[in-house]
Design goal:
extended, single chain
Length: 146
């Protein structure tokens, strides 16, 4: 029992450290994958992007559900957005895993440097959709007019 508890602790520490290191490789910055001169400089970023896509793939499921629900005002339409967003999220998660595996496999061999998914890292349009929805609501009702 004690040995297995110790193993779990070591495993969690190793996963945490590797996530921090590889997550740092995948951040958007001036030395993005396509901007370096040689492939040896791009390979670590591509590897980090692949690991990030695999680790963040499950987050696409709630992300897509919330994004689709944010497009509508009516509660029934929002509920439909949540349900439909789950299916869309599973599709995006699968694509993110495939993209991540591809990036990891091709990173040491000189595969293409461009991201295989667009956007290359998980991204949510929730705030923009809610703001747009609120503005259209104010236009129709005249409540927010100045």
């Amino acid at each position: 029992m004690i040995k297995s508890k110790r193993f779990v602790q070591i495993l969690l520490i190793a996963v945490s450290l590797s996530s921090v290191l590889l997550g740092g490789c995948s951040l958007n910055s001036a030395n993005y994958v396509g901007n370096e001169e040689s492939y040896s400089e791009r390979a670590p970023r591509k590897l980090g992007r692949g690991m990030t896509n695999i680790l963040s793939a499950p987050l696409e499921i709630p992300n897509q559900a919330v994004d689709l629900a944010a497009e509508n005002d009516e509660p029934a339409e929002q509920a439909a957005g949540y349900v439909g967003g789950l299916f869309v999220g599973f599709a995006y998660a699968g694509g993110r895993v495939v993209s991540g595996v591809y990036d990891i496999i091709t990173s040491p061999f000189g595969g293409p440097a461009v991201p295989t998914m667009d956007p290359d890292l998980i991204h949510s349009d929730y705030c923009e959709k809610v703001e747009k929805r609120d503005e259209s609501f104010k236009d129709v009702t005249g409540l927010g007019a100045e």
